[in-house]
Amino acid sequence: MSRRNRNMVGLTVLIVGLVAGLMYACRTTQSMSGPAAARVYVAPGAYDEFYAFMSGGFSGQVSVYGLPSGRMLKVIPVFSQNAENGYGYSEETKPMLMTTFGFIPWDDSHHTELSQTNGTPDGRWLFINGNNTPRVARIDLVDFETQEILQIPNSAGNHASPFITPNSEYVVASTRFSVPIPQRDAAIADFKNFSGTISFIKANEPGKMDVAFQIMMPGYDYDLSHSGKGKSNGWAFFTSYNTEQAHTLLEVNASKHDKDFVAAVNWKRAEACIQEGKFTKLSGEYYHNVVGPDRVARSEVKQGTKLITPKDCTGMVYFLSTPKSPHGVDVDPSGEYIVAGGKLATVIPVHSFDKMLKAIAGKQVETEIDGIPVLKYDATIAGEVKEPGLGPLHTEFDGKGNAYTSMFISSEVVKWQLGTWQVLDRIPTYYSIGHLMIPGGDSEKPWGKYLVALNKITKDRFLPTGPELAHAAQLIDISGDKMQLLLDFPTIGEPHYAQAIPADMLKDKQTKIFSLTENKDRNATLSEDKSRVERRGNVVHIYMTAIRSHFAPDNIEGIQAGDSVYFHVTNVEQDWDIPHGFAAMGNNNAELLLMPGETRTLSWVPKTPGVYPFYCTDFCSALHQEMQGYVRVSPRGSNVPLAWGTGGLNTSRPVATK
Amino acid sequence: MKQSSRVMLAVAAALIALTFVLPLWHINLQAPQYPEGLGMHIRLHTVSGAQPHDLRNINSLNHYIGMKPIVPESIPELRYMPYIAGLLALCALAAALSGRRWLLYGWFALFAVVAVVGLMDFYRWEYDYGHNLDLEHAAIKIPGMAYQPPLIGSKQLLNFKATSLPALGGIALMLAMLLGAIVIFLESRRRRASSLASAALSAIIAGGCAMAPQPIDYGKDQCAHCVMAITDQRFGAELITTKGKAYKFDSVECLANYVINEKPDFESLWVTDYERPGTLVSADDALFVHSDKLRSPMGGNIAAFKNASFDELKQQYNTDVMHWPDVVELLRNTAADAARAPMTMP
Asked: What's the per-residue H, E or C state across chain B?
């Protein structure tokens, strides 16, 4: 072997050694992902630590996820029709989507909010707002069903909603879009005469939500809110932008002022003014849709609200000067610090509640707008987080003295310390985070273990699915000094905001079945021998039962084209997780999905004669495919008699297969 | 019957009465899609689901295999069983209160018959449900397949694993029966100590823990209580301490007074069978008679009998017949009376 060759061999050995060494190093680096995987791994059959409730955004619904696994557990239909289970299609649920504008099959749901007791989530209810047609819904956390929807009158774009007060006294609502109040025909250029409203909705009694009072506000855009807590209990804070009052090309025209406002509303003062009669009656119809004890939704149309004008109720509203077009306004667990996310600001301004009270007492007032004193920035500011990143939007807290702010433009979460205003850590998000959520992170006692980033842009994070991509959520471990990304998972619609609560607070109180003995639906058929068909003119009511694996009746004759047919189907099972479905061919309607013990009604207007099959759509049993039946539709005026049965026609007592 | 026997019978009566509230038997059905299980409680008067809707769900599933729905109202036994259980409890209570042996034996015999017939009947119902299937309407038909759950134990029936076990009420009944057997054993042992079986059993029980007495050397050994020589072979007595040391006495009263005064830690007490002089028997197994017809050395006039029955002694001596604790109590009271009496002797 020549010397040159020997050198080559030596060099090769060296290179191979280096590469092997590097590969080893890389291997050890890669194994760092091991702990992250283990921390989000929830073994088959095991449960997650938290329920997370994410708003559905433009889906109009709420989605429920388990944390830390990121597994989707359920979609709760709220503001949008849900053909999947017949919500908003069945006769019992259609009233839920009624408004003064008529039946609306959709909304844009933005912010979930858990009910609270003593400033801490208590696991009773979840509230969510409808942004497009102003509404607030209440979901019961015993059955994860929407129980109540209240329309907000004299409002447009219900965005700063439904943030809750510490003992669930109120959830709030406000106008993102100022409009003429009361509504009227007006030139858009007349915008200076438009107004906003902030509404307080009584929220602590199920089935009794109502607008307690509304506050007339200058015609700005009211964006987000959070209630005071602890020492600041009794106050609620709202961000506003477009103090320029632009009505066109807002991206430019509403971004001119260096400072916009955080509105501080003393709602206890407002209650006192109502007591003292310092309000006017504002007209305005609105709908209140409630599920009754019979599990049937009904609508009530209400009239008028109590309107308080700030100049008639001094001490109720103050403006805190805040840079610049602020989005989130978030109160720390102690209730002292009010953090505003000025999305075009270069700092994160933090107001002090104590300083605010002093500024009010010391009349540190810059100016007054429509009877609302504007407090001087220097008089209320506790500190500014310098160079936090770009586009701060929303802040939550871990209960250990730290705050976490989402940065839309620089696409990151920034961790900083309350009091010192020092940035402690930052972690990139993929991509462009909107809101973020720490379980209990907007309450007095956060469970500060995880943070969920709710991102607006997904791009290459998942396998591509054409141009429309799922929004991404990211789970970040915040239990240590350094934040650590654990998991990416896709979501439905666009989750704007989310809430989470320890699983133990909900899992053992879940409804498994609806008791037939408590089924008060007047169209219920509680046992098979009571199943029947009744004709009243052109309307035919079919009282039907469903049980593994047949309907009763499953053969029906005597229906005529053009009849209005109502299938009142009762699932007479009393067994956990045995739903039945019901669908009829050619029905211009959705299906029914019936939980055990539940009654739902599907309407059907057959147009042409024929024999129409119907069947169970939810695989219920080994003989699910046999769970089917027929309706014979005869021509209008036919003399085919009304007859029905299971196991034989023309008998009013169908033979049950036992 | 002894006091302890009567207490045990009263407990047995209470255990039987428990079946009015506790289920007798439990049949649990476990399947892959029923991780929470479906359960049936067989009670005196009905069959109910372990959870509110379990029976309904079991019937709903059973219709696929053509099994008759389980309708408690159609099972006539469930109408009679509360009366039978009530009768059994009352019999046990009557035996306990009266102390009559014939009631004890009568009750136990009835109990045994009810238990055997009851289990056979339960099996018959299980057989009937499991075999007499309505195959015309059954969706699932497997030739040769029967769906009879076991009487006790587990069996796989298609996707369900059926486990049948006594529930708390059934366990209470078993305990009651066990108590009855114990009482009968104890009572019969007292009555016929000579019978080979009970003798063997006593030997096992006694031999396991108690030491045999030392023979008394009559004429030489001294009474540990009155310090007199032990002479009368009809009355000698002995105490074995927990350490195995033997103290000898010339009479039952000296033994009892020694126990009362010295409170020694003893392993066993022995007295002489009056009818077999020189033969020591356990004080616990003996009956005692206090009579002037019996002239015992220290004037206590108490003698022990091993084989004579309670009634015979009562008739023969025309006085109360006692167990050992009664003897101790008698002498304790006598001593107390003496202490309270005015001093008439110098």
From this structure: CCHHHHHHHHHHHHHHHHCCCCCCEEEEEEECCEEEEEEEEECCCCEEECCCCHHHHHHHHHHHHCCCCCCHHHCCHHHHHHHHHHHHHHHHHHHHHHCCHHHHHHHHHHHHHHHHHHHHHHHHHHHHHHHCCCCCCCCCCCCCCCCCCCCCEEEEECCEEEEEEECHHHHHHHHHHHHHHHHHHHHHHHHCCCCHHHHHHHHHHHHHHCCCCCCCCCCCCECCCCCCECCCCCCCEEEEECCCCEEEECCHHHHHHHHHHHCCCEEEEEEEECCCCCCEEEHHHCEEEECCCCCCCCCCCEEEECCCCHHHHHHHHCCCEECHHHHHHHHHHHHHHHHHCCCCCC
**Closest C-alpha to A545, from A557, A533, A534:** A533
**CB contact, 8 Å: B64 with chain A?**
yes
Give the pLDDT of residue B168: 96
Cα of B63 to nearest chain A Cα, Å: 5
The pLDDT, as a whole number, for residue B194 is: 45
Residue B200 is predicted with a pLDDT of: 55
Chain centroid, CA A501 distance in Å: 14
Q: Mean pLDDT, chain B, as a whole number? A: 87
Contact A575 B53 (CB under 8 A): yes
State how far residue A62 is from chain B, nearest Cα, in angstroms. 28
The minimum CA-CA distance between A497 and chain B, rounded to whole Å, is 36
Q: Can you list the residues of chain A whose pLDDT is less than 50?
A: 24-33, 651-658
**Which chain A residue is nearest to residue B56, measuring alpha carbons?**
A574
Closest residue in A to B67 (Cα) is: A658
Please state whether B299 falls in left (phi above 0), alpha (psi between -120 and 50) or beta. Answer: left
Extract the tokens encoding A23. 């590969």
For tokens 């650590």, the residue is A484
Helix axes B3-18, B168-191, angle to 10 degrees: 160
pLDDT at B346: 37
For B165-176, the pLDDT digits (tens) are 999 999 999 999
- C-alpha–C-alpha distance, residues A583 and A591, integer Å: 5
Alpha-carbon gap, residue B10 to B12, rounded angstroms: 5
Mean model confidence pLDDT for chain A: 94
The answer, for B36 touching chain A at a CB cutoff of 8 Å, is yes
Residue of B nearest to A513 (CA): B53
- From chain A, the residues in CB contact with B140 under 8 A are 622
Residues from chain B contacting residue A526 (CB–CB below 8 Å): none
CB proximity B138 to A under 8 Å: no
B63/A575 CB distance under 8 A: no
Between CA A507 and CA A515, with CA A513 as vertex, the angle to 5 degrees is: 130
Pairwise CA distance, residues A619 & A625, whole Å? 8
User: ipTM higher than 0.95?
Assistant: no
A-interface mutation test, from B33, B38, B53, B67, most A Cβ less than 10 A away: B53
Judged by CB atoms closer than 8 Å, whether chains meet at B52 and A574 is answered as yes
Query: Is there a contact between B247 and B224 (Cβ–Cβ < 8 Å)?
Result: yes
- Cβ proximity of B39 and B26 under 8 Å: yes
Which residues of A make CB contacts under 8 Å with B?
513, 547-549, 573-576, 621-623, 626, 657-658
Residue B248 is encoded by which pair of tokens? 């000898």
Size of interface A-B (CB pairs under 8 A): 33
Summarize pLDDT for A17-59 with one digit per residue, the tens: 555 555 544 444 333 445 899 999 999 999 999 999 999 999 9
Chain B nearest CA to A519, separation (Å) = 15
Interface test with A, best of B33, B48, B64 (most A CBs within 10 A): B64
116-135 of B, contacting A, C-beta below 8 A: 134
Token digits of residue A86: 């017949």
